[in-house]
Structures are given as C-alpha cells and as structure tokens.
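Attaching the record inline, Q. Sequence:
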Amino acid sequence: MEYKIIFGGQVGAGKTTAIAAISDVPVVKTEARASDDVALRKDTTTVAMDYGLINLPGGEKVHLFGTPGQTRFSFMWDVLTVGGLGLVLLIDNAAANPVDDMVTYVEAFRKFIDNNALVVGITRMDLSTNPPLAVYISKLQEMGINAPVYEVDARKAEDVEVMLMSLLSILELGLK
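Structure, as predicted:
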C-alpha cells in the first residue's frame, strides 16, 4: 500500500525541513534563489515541490510532498494534492500575521481539507509565543474545521511524526 501526505504553509514555516527530518531517502528539492521579498527571509525557496519517502514495515510507503509556500506557485498546490490523504499545514508563529496566514492557506486548500484530513503544526514558537495555540484552534473552529493543532519544531523527527500519526489516526478512525 502507498500513501501520499501533503505539507503546505507559508514560506519559511519548515515544510522542507519537516520532510527532511522524517524521510528515509534524501529529499528531492526544487529550490531556487529567492528573488522577491522572500529573499529578505532566506536565500532559496521551493518553487515546485519537495519530495521525501517513509518506508513502513511490511513494504508500505508514505510519500511526502511539500508545496511551495508562495501564492504565485499556487497552481502546484492543486497538482500536488491529487491522490493525497491529508494535509500537514505548517505555520510560522514568528511571522507578522500567522493566524491570517493560516486562514489564507486553509481557504486555499479548503476543498482538499473538506475531503481529507488536516493537522496544523505551529513552528518557531521558540521565537514568538504569541499567538498561543488556543487562538489557532479558535480560528479553525470559527471556520468550521475541527483539526488538531501542535507546537512543533520542524527539525525534530519526533514532532513531525506526532503530526503524521495524528493525521493517520484521523483517517483510520474515519473522523474525516
């Protein structure tokens, strides 16, 4: 059996890093030099996708696809979600308006989310503890979405694994 999980969220939220933290193979990256306001935050950015793989016991595989964060590459979001089971949405808590960012990405992926599972990971809380997780949960509930929200360090495999296990549990229990 093979599964497909999507990682989405704004630039710098940790999508590429999270996939690299848990992938059993070197991550395939489509990085290009940042040339717009993204260059103020980082040197390169994903322009098409990231790809990683987890090999499960018994030969099952989990394919991990990271979307580009910039909305100008949003056409890739629809391409990459085809056949996906769920979305791991990563949000950078140190961004200027992280709750608004979450809303933007939830709305952009809403059709996919409504038909699949969603887990939200809030990154960089070590740099900014505001807003707290409760604000994200409340905003999702206002949007009619019941999804788990976690504080995560995208560099730590155990944090990323918790999100994946949560996503797979939602699917297995038929909560979606």
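The beta strands are 2-9, 28-33, 44-55, 61-66, 86-92, 117-123, 149-151. The mean pLDDT is 88.

More tomorrow.
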